[in-house]
Amino acid sequence: MQSAGCFQFVAFSAQEEIYLTLIACRVSELSLIPGIVIADYTGKNGEIPEFPSDKKILTYLGNPDDQIECPTPAQQIIFGTHRRRVPSWYNYDTPVQLGSLKNSKDLAYENAARIKFFQEHLEDIISQAFSEFNDIFDIDIEPVNGGLKNPAGIISYSGRINEMFHDKGSDLDKTDFIQVRQIHPLPKKSIKKYIEKRKSVTVLEDSGFIASGHSLISSEIADITKESSLNFYSAGFSPDLTHSSLVDAAKHMLHNEVKTNYFLGLSFYKASSNYPKQEIHYQDIKSKYPQLEQESVQANDNIGIDNPILKDELPETVKSNQNTGPIFTRLSHFYETSAFFRKYNIHSELVADPFASIASMPASSAELFSPQNERNLPGFLPENCTACGNCYMICPHSALPPIAIGVEDLLKSGAELAKSSGKLIRKLFPHYKNLSRLAAQNSGENAISTVSDLVKPAFEKLCDKLNLKETDKDLLDQEFYFIMEQIGDFPISLNDVLYDIPSKIEAGSGKLFSIVVNPMSCTGCGLCQDVCEDNAIEMLLPKDQNINKVFSEFRAWEQMPDTETKTINQLHLDEKVNSLAAILLSRNYYTSMSGFGPDESENASKTIIHLLSAITEANIQPGVISQLNYIDKLSSDLTDSVHKELSDALPDDDITELSEVLKNTPKKKILVRDIIDNIRADTASKYINTQSLGRKIELIKSLKELYQLIKIGSRGNGKSRYGLVIASKDKFNWAGTYPFNHFSGPSIILQDENSAEFILGLMSGQIRFLLDQIKLLRRANLEIKGKYDPVIHDQQIAQLEWDDLTEDEKSYLPPVFMLIDHKGMSSVSRSSFLRLLTYKVPVKVLSFDSATCHPLTSKEEMTQRHSMFMSNLALTDVYIYQGSLVNADRFFEGISVGIKNSKPAFFNLFVPDNSQLIHNGKNVLELSKLVENSRMLPDYSYLKIKSDNNYNVL
Hints:
Elements: E1 7-11, H1 14-31, E2 35-39, H2 54-61, E3 67-69, H3 73-79, E4 82-84, E5 96-98, H4 104-117, H5 122-137, E6 144-146, E7 152-156, H6 159-165, E8 175-180, E9 182-184, H7 188-195, E10 200-206, H8 207-212, H9 218-224, E11 231-237, H10 243-254, H11 276-288, H12 316-320, H13 331-343, E12 360-362, E13 377-380, H14 390-394, E14 402-406, H15 407-420, H16 432-442, H17 451-466, H18 470-487, H19 496-505, E15 511-515, H20 527-531, E16 537-540, H21 547-559, H22 565-573, H23 579-583, H24 587-590, H25 603-648, H26 656-663, H27 672-677, H28 681-684, H29 690-711, E17 723-726, H30 733-736, E18 747-749, H31 755-785, H32 790-798, H33 807-810, E19 816-821, H34 822-827, H35 830-837, E20 843-849, H36 858-872, E21 879-883, H37 888-900, E22 905-910, H38 914-920, H39 924-934, E23 940-942, E24 944-947, E25 950-953
Parallel strand pairs: 1-2, 5-18, 7-8, 7-10, 10-11, 17-18, 17-19, 19-20, 20-22, 21-22
Antiparallel strand pairs: 1-9, 3-4, 5-12, 6-8, 13-16, 14-15, 21-23, 24-25
Helix pairs in contact: 1-5, 15-16, 15-18, 16-17, 17-18, 25-29, 25-31, 25-37, 29-31, 31-35
C-alpha cells in the first residue's frame, strides 16, 4: 500500500475509525491523493461509537460541487487558481483519457513528478485537516499521542499493542506508549516531540516489514534520532504477539541491551529553452519549486534536431479548440509543452513537470502527431469513383475524410480561401448560383475530375451570356482565377446518386463527391486500396507524390462547410448507398475518433471503434439539438415571464398622470425610476413577488450556463456524447498508448477484473450530474406554468432518482461503452458483469470476437464463449446484437437500436486478430464475409421486454 502512494491512518477503536475516515476524506479532497484508514482493533471492549451530526460533517467536508482555491502550487499549475472540491476527472464537458499506457521513461517522469508535486505537500495538508477537525468537532485527536512522564517509550501503529498496553504490569509501568495513527507520510515533527527528551525508545513493527527491509516507520524514526544520545531500538513482532513478549521488549530497552535491531537522471525543469512558451512553463515551475534545482541530475538526452523549430503547422484541432477547461485538459497546452517536442524528437525539452505526475491526455491528442517517415500515400482517382464509401469506412486512422458539397458552396469556400490570402472577391459573388446551374447543364460533355474541369466551361458560358464590358470582364476573370487558384485542382467525382439525378430534378442541386488525404494521419497502410473495387485509390510511392498538393487539398477540405444533414439523410434512405458511407460524410461524425498511432497491429479493432463512435454521434447529436432547443425555449419563456411580472407592476389604471410626468420632463431620455418617483405613491405602489422573481432570474442564469455547457463546452464543440472504459489490453494497446489519445470523449484504461464494478460506480456519478440538470429543467417548467410551490416541489425535486425520469430525460445521459475482448471477458467477475447489464442505464458492452480458438482448447473455448453469450439472452431489457461488417446497413441498424435505448446493450462483433489478417491475406471486409458464410457469428439482434407480467421478444 505504501508503494501505491496512498497516505495511511490507523484507527485503534471504532470511534477513531469514524473520525479518521472523515479526516482522510478531507485530506484526499485537498491533496488529490487516495488514503487508507486501517481499522486495527478487536472491539472486545464493547464500545458503541457515536456518529457526528450531519451539520458538523457538512461544515467540515463541504459540498463536493464547491469551487475551492487550489491548495498547492502544483494544483494551480494543473487546474488554474480554482477547482471543483472533488475534481470531475471523467467528464463529458472536459474529456481527457485517464490511465494512459506510458513507456518506461514517461513512467519515470510521472513517478518523479508525483513525489515532488503531490506527495511532498501531504504532511502540511494532513496537519491542516486534523486541526480543522478538532476545532469543528471539539475533539482532541492527533496523528501521534502518548505519555511523556517516563524516560523510555514504545512506539507503534499496531492496534493489538495498543490494547495490550492498557493491561500494564512490571516493566510496562516504566514505559510510555506512543500511538502513531499516521504511518504514511510519517509525522516526524510530532514524533520528535515525544522522543527528544527520552533516554531510549523502541519501535515495534510487524516482522514482515522488518525482515524484508521495507519497514514502515523504523528507518524514518531512526533518522530523527541520529543526532541525539537516545538509545534507539527497532523490533519486529510476530503475528502471535503476547503480553509477555511486549514486556520483554520493554525490559530489553530498560536494561540498555546492546542489540538495537533485533528482528528486524530526471529534470523537473530546465534553466532555459529554445522555445519561449516552454521557457515560461519552466519558469512557472521554478518560481513555485525553487528547491528542485538542486535535486536533479539531468541526463544527456539531447536527441533530435540541433536547431530549434520555432514554427509548426498547427492542426485545425488545436486552432479551433477553445481551451477553457482546467489546464490539464487543454489541447493547446499539451501541444506546446509536450506533443510538439515528442513529434520532432526534441527529448531535451521534456521534463518531469506536474503534468507528468498524472496519467492523463487531453481528448484527440493523437491529431497533434504525424508519421515522420517517408511512406506511400493514397492517390484519389475521381473518374473511377462510385462513392461506395469502403475506402474511408475501412481507414483506421480517419485519414480519408470525404465530402459531398454543392458547386455554389464550393465556390464560396474558394472565395474564402482567396480572401485569407489577401484577395477580395466582389464581382463574382452574385453569380455563384448561375454558375452552379450552368455547370450542371454541361457536366456530361467532357471528362471531369477537378473543380476546374466542371466550372471553367460554365464560367465561359456565363460571361458570354452577361455580355460584359471589357473592364468588367477582366475583373470577373481575375476573381475567377483567384478562386481557381485555391480549389481549381481539387478532385471531384460526379456520380448518379449525388449529382446526376438531383441535377436533373433541379439544376445546380447536385452534390460533388470528393475524398482527400490527411497527410498528418495517414500511415500508408494501403487498406483503402485493398477494399476499393473501382480502382479509384492508388498508392503512390514517395517519389511520385506531390506532398504540397496533398496538404493543400486537405487544408481546403478543412475550410469547406460540412456535408449538409439533408444530403446525409437522403443517402441514408437510398438503397444504393450503405448507411455507414452516408453518415461518415459528416465531418462531425467522421472525426469523432481520429489520429494515427505507433501501433498498427490491431487496425481492425480501431476501424470498428471508429465506426461505433460515428454511429453514436449520428444517433445522439439530433437528441442533443432537441435538448438545446428545449433549454432555449425554457429560458425564453422564463424571460418573458419576468418581463410580464415587471410590466404588470407599472401603473396602468390611469395613464394621465404618466403623460403629465413625460410632458414635464425636459430631457429626451429619462430613467424608469425617475418616472416612478414622480408618480403619486398610491398610483405607483404595486407589489412584486421578490422570491418568485428572484427564483426565475436565477433559473434563467442557470439555464443559459447549461445551454453553453452543452453546446460550446470547454473545447468549442460541446459536451461529449459518449464515454469509454477500455477493459482489455490485447486488442486495445493502441487506445491508451501515451501520448496518443484518439477519442473525442472521456476514456479510461482499466484492465482488471473489477472493470464492471468500476463502471457501475462511474454511471452512478454521471446519473447524479444528470439529475442536477433535470431538477433545473423541471423547476423551470413549473415556474413557467405558475405552478411552482417551494414547500411542495423543493422536496419532490430534491428526491428525484433515475427511475423517476422520463425516457426523454434519460436520453440526456451519454452512454458509456465498455470495450472488451473474450480474453478480458473471462477475467471479469460474472456476477459483477450481470449486475452491470441489469442496472437499467445506458451501459453498452462492446465485445470483440475474433471467431477463432486455440487448436488444443477449441472445444472448451467455444463452449465457454457460447454459454456466456447465451446466458445474456436470458436478461430482460438488455438489447443484444451480434454481427460484422459484411453488411454495412445491418451493422448500422444493429448498433443504432442499442445506442438509442436508455437501457444496457451487449454488442458481440467480429473483429479479426492481426494474425488472421496476415495469415489469410485478407482485409476485415473479406474476413467478415468468410465468418458470415461459415456461420461462426450469425448476424442477429435480440431484446426481451417485460410488460404486464408478459415477456415479448423482438
